[in-house]
Amino acid sequence: MSPMKPLVIVTPFHESQIQAAIYCSKESGIQIRVRSGGHDYEGLSYVSEIPFAIVDVRNLRSISIDTKNKTAWVETGATLGQLYYTIASKSRTLAFTAGVCPTVGVGGHMSGGGYGMMSRRHGISVDHVIDAKLIDVNGRILDRKSMGEDLFWAIRGGGGTSFGILVAFKIQLIVIPETLTVFNVTRTLEQNATQLVHRWQYVADKIDDNLLVRLFLRSFNSSRNGKRTIGAFFSSLYLGRVDDLLQIMQEKFPELGLVKEDCIEMTWIESALFFAGFPRNTSLQVLTRRVSVVTYFKGKSDYVKEPIPQHGLKGIWKFLEEEDENLAELQFSPYGGRLNDYSESEIPFPHREGNIFMIHYFVNWYKPGNKESERHVNWTRRLYSYMAPYVSKSPRTAYFNYRDMDIGMNNEGNTRFKQASVWGFKYFKNNFIRLVHVKTKVDPSNFFKNEQSIPPLS
C-alpha cells in the first residue's frame, strides 16, 4: 500500500552490476533496498519512505553441489525450493535444514536465521553456513577469509543487508535417512484440543530429537456439525520409519492418539512438497517456481519458556473466534534438541536453550483499504498484548525473520539508536551490542540501512 515506488529496479546477472549499483547509489544519494525472494515481513526490502532503488538478486541463483564433501555454494537469489530440488537431484541422502515455504529467498532466510522442520535434529540453516560472498560498501567482493570473522559472524543471523549485499553462501549439507515419516492430525475443542495443546507444551521440546511436531491453531467450520470451532493441527516430520515414530509417540504423547493410518512414509524431497501444501503426486519441478500468492498480512512472534496454562489457551480461542474463518492462526514451533547445543552468542541468532517453542501470530486478508487493514492489524496487537504474561520477558524476545515494525514504535522522540536498541535486544539479545560494533567498523556512514537495520555507533 506504500505510495512511494522505487525509482529503478536493478536485476543484476553479474557481481559487477551490483558494484555499479552501489557506486551509482553513492553518487546520486538514492538509498538501496536489497531483495531476494520477496517474503520480507513489513516489506523493508522493497518499500521505503524516501527515494530508493531496489537491487533484486533473483537472477543470481546458481547452485553447485559437491556430494563428495557434502557442501554446496548457493547464490542468494535462489529460493529454498530451488535449493531443495537441486540437492535432491544429486542425492537421496543429502539435505539441508531450512524453512518449509519454497518461494522464500535464500538471502533473507539464511542471513536472518532460517528455522525449519529438521531444526530439532540439525539446528537452523545458518548454523551450517561455512563461507559466504559479500559486496561491501566500497564495492569489494569479500569471502570469509577477507571479510574477517567478526563480519562473517554478523551475517549469520544478524541480517545481511545491514552490512553489504550478500551474493552467495557456502553451506554444509546434512545426511538424512532415505525414508522419513510425516503426519497431519487435527483435533477440535470437542476432541479435547485444549488439553492436547496444554500437554504438547510439556512434550514438544523434550521428545526424540529426530521428531518435530509443529502445532497450528485456527478457527474453522467443522465438517462434523458445520459449526465454528477451534482446530489444533499437529504437523510433524520424523527422520525415520513409521513404526519407530509410533513407538515414540505412544511413550511420549499417547494423548494425541496417533495411529499408523495417520502417517505417510516418503523421501525428504517429497516431504518438502508435503509441508508446502502440494498434493502427494505433484511434480518436484513445482519447487522451482517463484510465484507466490498476493495477499495482505501482519505477523508477530514470541518465545515461550513456561507452558501456557489452560485458562491462557482459552483466552487465545476467544481471539481466534473474533477473526474471520481460516484467516488467522497461531503457529507453535518447538525448540530443544540441537538448538540447545549452541550458546546464545555462537551466532547473532540467540534463541537457544530455555525456549520451549516459538509463536508466530499471523493474520491475512484480501480486501484492500485502510479500514480493513486497521481491523486485522489491531487484532494482532491486542492478541500480542494479551500474551505478555505467558511469554519471555526482559527482554520479550522475537524472531528477526518475522520482522515486526510495531517493536520500538512507542519510543518516538528518542534517537534512532535508542529506538533500534528496543527491537535490537528483542531480536538479538546481547548480541545486538556486537552487531553494532561490527556495523560501525564495516559501514560507519550507515550506507546500507532500512527502518530496522543495525545502526552504527556514530
Automatic annotation (TrEMBL):
<dbReference type="Pfam" id="PF01565">
    <property type="entry name" value="FAD_binding_4"/>
</dbReference>
<keyword id="KW-0017">Alkaloid metabolism</keyword>
<keyword id="KW-0274">FAD</keyword>
<dbReference type="InterPro" id="IPR006094">
    <property type="entry name" value="Oxid_FAD_bind_N"/>
</dbReference>
<protein>
    <submittedName>
        <fullName>FAD-binding Berberine family protein</fullName>
    </submittedName>
</protein>
<dbReference type="Pfam" id="PF08031">
    <property type="entry name" value="BBE"/>
</dbReference>
<keyword id="KW-0732">Signal</keyword>
<comment type="similarity">
    <text>Belongs to the oxygen-dependent FAD-linked oxidoreductase family.</text>
</comment>
<keyword id="KW-0325">Glycoprotein</keyword>
<dbReference type="InterPro" id="IPR016166">
    <property type="entry name" value="FAD-bd_PCMH"/>
</dbReference>
<keyword id="KW-0285">Flavoprotein</keyword>
<feature type="domain" description="FAD-binding PCMH-type">
    <location>
        <begin position="1"/>
        <end position="176"/>
    </location>
</feature>
<comment type="pathway">
    <text>Alkaloid biosynthesis.</text>
</comment>
<dbReference type="InterPro" id="IPR012951">
    <property type="entry name" value="BBE"/>
</dbReference>
<dbReference type="InterPro" id="IPR036318">
    <property type="entry name" value="FAD-bd_PCMH-like_sf"/>
</dbReference>
<dbReference type="InterPro" id="IPR016169">
    <property type="entry name" value="FAD-bd_PCMH_sub2"/>
</dbReference>
<dbReference type="InterPro" id="IPR016167">
    <property type="entry name" value="FAD-bd_PCMH_sub1"/>
</dbReference>
